[in-house]
UniProtKB/TrEMBL annotation:
<keyword id="KW-0675">Receptor</keyword>
<keyword id="KW-0998">Cell outer membrane</keyword>
<dbReference type="InterPro" id="IPR039426">
    <property type="entry name" value="TonB-dep_rcpt-like"/>
</dbReference>
<dbReference type="InterPro" id="IPR036942">
    <property type="entry name" value="Beta-barrel_TonB_sf"/>
</dbReference>
<comment type="similarity">
    <text>Belongs to the TonB-dependent receptor family.</text>
</comment>
<dbReference type="InterPro" id="IPR012910">
    <property type="entry name" value="Plug_dom"/>
</dbReference>
<keyword id="KW-0812">Transmembrane</keyword>
<dbReference type="InterPro" id="IPR037066">
    <property type="entry name" value="Plug_dom_sf"/>
</dbReference>
<protein>
    <submittedName>
        <fullName>TonB-dependent receptor</fullName>
    </submittedName>
</protein>
<dbReference type="InterPro" id="IPR023996">
    <property type="entry name" value="TonB-dep_OMP_SusC/RagA"/>
</dbReference>
<dbReference type="GO" id="GO:0009279">
    <property type="term" value="C:cell outer membrane"/>
</dbReference>
<keyword id="KW-1134">Transmembrane beta strand</keyword>
<keyword id="KW-0813">Transport</keyword>
<keyword id="KW-0472">Membrane</keyword>
<dbReference type="InterPro" id="IPR023997">
    <property type="entry name" value="TonB-dep_OMP_SusC/RagA_CS"/>
</dbReference>
<dbReference type="Pfam" id="PF07715">
    <property type="entry name" value="Plug"/>
</dbReference>
<feature type="domain" description="TonB-dependent receptor plug">
    <location>
        <begin position="48"/>
        <end position="155"/>
    </location>
</feature>
Length: 1004
């Protein structure tokens, strides 16, 4: 076993398990009940004691010690079976949440978010943690099927804080300020190592022109040591990412109520600088909730939320291929002053042409991106108690998202240089609108040993939207970004050129109508049965397959209530659960079941000085037979509690099968189309989840509490359906970081997102060659497989070149030698927290961990491959490469001397062929991260009563304190590709930072 994995496991035992064992020695009569909580499970609430489903819950108390601006980060590692991963460390970066591994192959695996009863996309990324009352995560289909078409990937129910009736008005302010710093950088060659590497590149082939070019740029060999051994080093990563990034966050909550009403107002303002120059995040948000009792029977309320956010900065890359990688310039730009006739802080067009590089600071000033998003949520409800047992509830909601992205490319960028060296602007606009209405009838009745809860309901959801895209070239060279955004009319096309016409698009309207019901029956407070059914109708599908029906049932046995356990004082709770359910997925574009025409200038023609739009059917063929993707989930669990609330937890095991996968399949182009949505294939997830918690000490002046969860999920493709050849059970997938590199495989029997490439066998050594003293030439021995065609650009293999393993034993390296190289799926993952209180002091530590995952370090591939360019800096690993020149700058060809020269080197010569995936780039992604440490002090009650202050707490926090990992990149959690089939790719990710802050929480 890897020593790092062993050390991580021992740390888990030390930090969590030993304290739990120590609880047995602590005696305390105070009881903290965990079974009287109320849990939101979809359209209604249920007592946790009567819960039959797999539901994870996070309350506001658990998030109070996590001063972060993204609520998703606050729940990371806190719920078993839920993976929360920030794709990178950029301000406002997207956060991916997967529940129990995800079920779909090509469609979104994001859960459904419901905020105060209203569907809201990616809600945790736009909510402030301070306004959240509770988060419930529905994990199994027996709980999610009540949401039918939208619940296949799990459901996250979020309740925001509201006021309380008959409560005096209180005002709470919480704010913090701090600074972020980069935690690590990618090691690169220092100036002398860089120049010595360039000396080899320029002189290896003995071409006089290249040798002269080297001397002109860098100088003669005799002066390299003195000139570059002491030259000022430019650490471009630290200059680009090394700024101290300040953060200011303010939260104000005003709440209260009268005899009949309750209100709350939440305000949030964030100003967060990024560690990368010219990057940052700004958000202002307001949320108002009001509830009013019109009468004893009728209650009404409404909620209004509005937020505006701005994400500044072009970042380190876009989602496309290596052409959008801006990190490359910080890693590969020459690491010193000088080296050409143009000062290093000025733009050098010749250097840019020869190297495909631009000074990263200049480039950062010339690539501007402003991403503005406005979110509006309005919802209202009406509760009417028809009788004391029968209640009608109606909820109506409106959600609108407006997104505006302004991008500017200045004269030094490759885009502008390809367009007459003039700036370019792109303006992208999109608006989506969603209207939701749900109506439910609830009947609750207790009679004797029986408790009955019945619900029937109806819901409609309709979504509309439109988008536009304006791409403007040939702006004046001296124009500034904000001027360009405001005056695109100043662009003047060169003679004979025509400006691209703006593109507009109406998003296909999405309509969903649903009918559902649920019954919950409890007998003798021991046996619980829950059954539900939902029917959804969606315009995504044709008439024959428009409706889907999703049933579910679950059982629970409250063993603690049986006579043989009822009097056991050491046992608080023991409950067995079993659930079975069917959920659906319809997350594809609407109306693909029929042929529709759209207009676009992309398919237009030139007429006079403009472009006349044309009509087209697009490149996706209609499929009237496409139907619902279906997920069947089976879950068995046990909940337990011991010693008057001192130890509690749960264990769940599940099997989730998804069939009729909605796959965008390749079809013969003779059809006139490229792809078609089809129902093809099956996946399976199996897993186990364990949650434990305990109160280790609970005395008047000291308490110590610990919570722990761990999950293991095994994902497997069971079938890929009928869109493959009869003799094939797999197909290749491209991650996209390099064009035409198919580095993933979708294969029956393997996990979704399996890396696919060659096995690294080191490098070719002297013994692999025959040497001709007369010609000084090395020729590969007969029987030694050649990597030339795959890795070396078809150049003749030389000693020190990259060597790949011949897996099929045919004596040559071909595509047939590719194999599976692992996946991003961890063996297990989770988190644990420790909370301490000593009189008025408090302290919390929160860890999250992952063991057994693999990370595809695409940066490592790029920064150890020469590809087409010289004068590029490389990864520090290249300093240990095979060398051809001795300390006097003389090329060594004699086999004995060459072997002696490289006796202590281990790295191969950077390949000059195309980028490929080989096992060198696949690294162990196991890690243990101390995510948060907080120390706080609360003033004694009454200390500031004369100043009308009810509570005052000050605290200091460090987020991302340290990470124990063997991964060599910025962060083992980075995942920059958005395709579910290509997870775990770390390519040009924005570095993660450490955040040190201080804050105050005060209530009046």
């Amino acid at each position: 076993m890897d020593k790092r994995v062993q050390s991580i496991k021992w740390l888990y035992v030390t930090v969590f398990l030993l304290p739990v064992l120590g609880m047995a020695q602590e005696k305390n009569k105070e009881k903290e009940s965990k079974i009287d909580e109320v849990v939101l499970v979809g359209y209604s609430k249920v007592s946790k004691a009567d819960l039959t489903n797999a539901v994870g819950s996070v309350k506001a108390e658990a998030m109070k010690d996590m001063p972060v601006n993204n609520a998703a980060e606050a729940i990371q590692g806190r719920v078993a079976g839920v993976q929360v991963m920030a794709s990178e460390g950029a301000p406002g970066a997207e956060v991916d949440i997967k529940i129990r591994g995800g079920t779909s192959i090509t469609q979104s695996n994001s859960p459904l978010y419901i905020v105060d009863g209203i569907q809201m996309d990616n809600a945790l990324s736009i909510l402030s943690p301070k306004e959240i009352e509770s988060i419930e995560v529905l994990k199994d289909a027996s709980s999610t099927s009540i949401y039918g078409a939208r619940g296949a990937n799990g459901v996250v129910l979020i309740t925001t804080k509201g006021g309380r009736k008959k409560a005096a008005t209180s005002i709470n302010y919480s704010g913090y300020t701090g600074v972020r710093k980069i935690t690590n950088t990618i090691p690169v060659l220092d100036p002398y190592e860089f120049v010595m590497y360039q000396y080899e590149l320029y002189n290896k082939n003995g071409i006089l022109e290249d040798q002269t070019a080297f001397q002109t740029r860098y100088g003669s060999f005799s002066e390299l040591a003195d000139k570059y051994g002491n030259i000022k080093k430019r650490d471009w990563q630290k200059e680009l990412f090394g700024q101290e990034a300040f953060n200011f966050t303010h939260n104000v909550n005003i709440m209260g109520g009268s005899e009949k009403s309750a209100f709350s107002l939440s305000l949030n303002h964030v100003e967060e600088d990024g560690i990368m120059l010219n990057s940052g995040f700004r958000r202002s948000m307001a949320n108002f909730k009001y509830d009013y009792d019109v009468s004893k029977k009728l209650k009404v309320g409404f909620n209004a939320r509005y937020s505006r956010q701005l994400i500044d900065g072009a970042g380190t890359s876009a989602s496309g291929s290596q052409g959008t990688n801006r990190l490359r310039n910080a890693v590969r730009y020459q690491p010193f002053e000088g080296g050409s006739n143009v000062p290093v802080d000025d733009f050098d067009p010749n250097y840019a042409t020869l190297t495909n590089l631009v000074n990263p600071l200049i480039l950062n000033d010339n690539e501007i991106r402003q991403n503005r998003t406005n979110d509006l949520l309005l919802n209202a409800y009406l509760n009417y108690n028809i009788t004391k047992d029968l209640t009608f509830r109606s909820v109506v909601g409106y959600v609108q998202k407006d997104n505006a992205v302004n991008q500017f490319w200045g004269t030094v960028t490759s885009d502008a240089r390809a367009n007459n060296n003039q700036p370019i602007v792109q303006l992208t606009r999109q608006q989506t609108r969603r209207i939701t209405n749900s109506n439910t009838l609830n009947y609750n009745k207790k009679f004797g040993n029986h408790k009955l809860d019945l619900m029937i309901g109806q819901e409609t959801v309709q979504t509309d939207g439109e988008s536009s895209n304006t791409y403007v070239k040939w702006l004046p060279s001296s124009i500034l970004p904000n001027e360009a955004f405001a005056s695109i009319q100043s662009a003047v096309p060169p003679t004979g050129m025509i400006q691209d016409a703006p593109r507009t698009l109406v998003l296909p309207p999405d309509r969903l109508v649903s009918f559902f019901g649920r019954a919950n029956y409890v007998f003798a407070n021991k046996y619980v049965i829950t059954a539900s059914i939902r029917q959804d109708g969606s315009n995504v599908f044709g008439k024959e397959n428009r409706y889907g029906t999703f049933p579910a049932f679950s059982l629970a046995w409250k063993m603690k209530q049986e006579n043989f356990l009822k009097d056991k004082e050491w046992l608080d709770e023991l409950k067995l659960r079993f659930g079975y359910g069917l959920a659906g997925n319809n997350r594809i574009t609407a109306y693909l079941h029929d042929t529709f025409f759209t207009t676009s200038t992309d398919y237009g023609y030139t007429f006079g000085s403009g472009v006349t739009p044309g009509a087209t059917t697009g490149n996706i063929a209609e499929n009237p037979r496409v139907k619902w993707e279906a997920t069947v989930s089976k879950n068995a669990g046990i909940d337990f509690g011991f010693f008057n609330g001192r130890l509690y937890g749960s264990v769940d095991a599940y099997i989730t099968d998804t069939k009729d996968l909605l796959v965008l399949a390749k079809i013969p182009q003779t059809s006139g189309y490229e792809t078609q949505f089809q129902n093809t294939g099956k996946t399976q997830n199996k897993g186990i989840e364990v949650t434990l918690g305990g109160i280790i000490f609970n005395r008047e002046n000291f308490s110590w509490k610990a919570d722990f969860n761990i999950s293991a999920n095994r994902n497997k493709i069971m079938s890929l359906g009928g869109n493959l050849a009869a003799n094939s059970n797999s197909y290749l997938v491209a991650s996209g970081w390099v064009n035409n590199l198919y580095d993933f495989i979708a294969k029956v029997g393997s996990p979704v997102g399996t890396y696919y490439g060659y096995v690294t066998e080191g490098r070719y050594e002297i013994g692999d060659f025959d040497f001709n003293p007369a010609t000084q030439a090395y020729t590969l021995k007969s029987g030694v497989p050649s990597s030339s065609a795959i890795a070396l650009g078809s150049k003749a293999v030389q000693p020190g070149d990259l060597k790949l393993k011949d897996l099929n034993g045919d004596g040559q390296i071909t595509a047939a030698d590719q194999t599976e190289l692992g996946s991003a799926q961890p063996k297990f993952y989770g988190g644990f927290s420790q909370t301490f209180r000593l009189k008025n002091w408090d302290m919390s530590l929160f860890f999250n961990f992952s063991v057994g995952s693999k990370v595809y370090n695409a940066n490592k591939s790029e920064f150890t491959t020469q590809y087409l360019y010289r004068d590029n800096n490389m990864s520090a690993d290249v300093a240990n490469r095979w060398k051809w020149f001795d300390n006097n700058g003389v090329k060594v060809t004699d086999p004995t001397a060459l072997a002696a020269l490289n006796a202590n080197t281990t790295m191969w010569t950077p390949p000059s062929g195309n980028y490929i995936l080989h096992s060198y780039a696949i690294e162990d992604g196991s890690f243990l991260r101390l995510n948060n440490v907080t120390i706080g002090y609360t003033l004694p009650k009454g200390a500031l009563e004369s100043a009308f202050i009810k509570n005052l707490r000050i605290y200091a926090t460090v987020n991302n304190v340290f990470t124990i990992t063997g991964y060599s990149g910025y962060d083992p959690e980075a995942s920059t590709r958005r395709n579910p089939l290509t997870p775990g790719v770390d390519y040009a990710a924005y570095p993660r930072s450490r955040f040190i802050l201080t804050g105050i929480d005060i209530t009046f």
